[in-house]
Amino acid sequence: MNVTLCSALAFSSSLLANDCRPCHAAIADAFAKTGMGRSITERPSALPSKFYHRLSNRHYTIADGKMRRHQIGAGGTEINVIEKTIDVAIGSGNHSITYASRTPTGLLLELPVSWYSQENAYFMSPGYDRPDHLDMRREVVDSCLFCHSDSEKPAAITCRRCHGDATAHLAKPGPGNIYNPKQSSEVCFQCHLETESMGVVDSMRKPGRDVFSYKPGEPLADYKLYFDRSDPPAGRFEVNHTAYRLMQSACYQKSNGKLGCVTCHDPHSARAREACGSCHQSEHTRAKVTGCAGCHMAKRKAQDAIHIRMTDHWIQREPKFADPVKESHEPYSGTLIPFYTKADQLSLAIANTRVPTAASASLYEEYLERAPNDVPTLIALGKTLIRLDRDRDAEARLRKALSLAPKDTAARLALAVSIGKQGNVAGALKEMKDAVAAAPDDSYSWLNLGFTHRELKQFSEAAAAFREAIRLQPDLAVARMALASLPAGK
After folding, report:
1. Taking the model in full, what pTM does it have?
2. 409-445 pLDDT, tens per residue?
3. Rounded distance between C-alpha atoms, residue 442 and residue 347, angstroms
4. Helix (H, G, I), strand (E, B) or coil at 294
5. Domains and CATH numbers, the chain
6. What are the φ/ψ torsions at residue 261 (nearest 5 degrees)?
7. Which residues contact 203 (CB under 8 A, 6 or more apart)?
8. 198 to each of 194, 236, 425, how far by Cα in Å?
9. Core vs surface per residue 50-64: b (16+ CB within 10 A) or e
């Protein structure tokens, strides 16, 4: 497919904060062309194409503002067909563009095929190059959206993400009443510091902090705590490792805080500055006054997105690495340790919790004494209590979670399970129906709805629910077995 990147997506600068433009027109126009200024686009124009994913045996077609999935059945007929509208493009296209579809209830679902500019082609979205991927069912939650969007409502990054509230500045323009990110790299770290993306808790927001509550200029440790793997970091390189890898550099560690993100990057234009010569004075540096990064900050493929080649910000004399040939999906099972911020023992213990046990339930209970309305902890505790057969206690925790977050499908599904396990199958059925209504693309909601109908001997309704679960997720073997186990003719 021989196309140019600019035709892959129609960009617009209309989402840039226009309040800044009257005084800073040149900066505003330059920022609108950066990756941050183009981080999200509504109603994108995606290039038409077809793509076959061998590992999951699915065919995808991108055309007319939609992404369609099908498989081939007996006689060459198309089966397991699902089609979603392409409503949002996440990513500037500098490296890639991932598409999302908006459900009737307002949820954003990540679509499984992304555009990769360096390869000028479509491949599976990061994390999807596996037989059991989430296909068209993965919800784009706020914690994922945060680094790509200016707010809960998807919109490209604007000036306020780095400069904060401009009310006072707009009322009386002056350099002293708006935040200047040159004062700290933490404004960059809010998005660009991730230690690990594969199956562990890399960070935890502080009690009472929601996803979009960080204010530029406040200590990052007041917003969240960070954790890292305890094994050596040298061999790991991921898409969002920019700040993490920079922190491993001797240049950063010996700079006493002088080396930061804006030392080398102009965030208003995305131009790189040549800053190495300010510290390194030698015949070598004078001979190479430009292009130091080309030798000492290698461009390489990320383990979690192998179709993207990015700059490794671990500054090294002679970088040595081997590009991965396939995505890494192996979750880390070792111990997590504090990173950058000082984690208290309770938060660290929760970050290291991997399996539901009585001990982990006690940790969640203790944390809720500190933050009684923390929804993720309420849900984690509820699910753990279900595993421990403490279903009445689980129900209470999950009902509270839903009172605080009524649209949380995971909480409602867990609540239905806790109610059903107590023998109230009719009550569980109501919650299951509500879960399906809130997230009609979630195969497990349909699966559990089918189990609940089966328990009430409503076999035709159970069959319909199992079939919908299979349509959404053809490889959901438990749904196929459940459907086959229903009484014949029912």
Report:
1. 0.89
2. 889 999 999 999 999 999 999 999 999 998 899 999 9
3. 31
4. helix
5. 1-159 (no CATH), 179-352 (no CATH), 353-484 (1.25.40.10)
6. -65, -45
7. 194, 195, 224, 225, 226, 227
8. 11, 11, 36
9. ebebeebebbbbbee
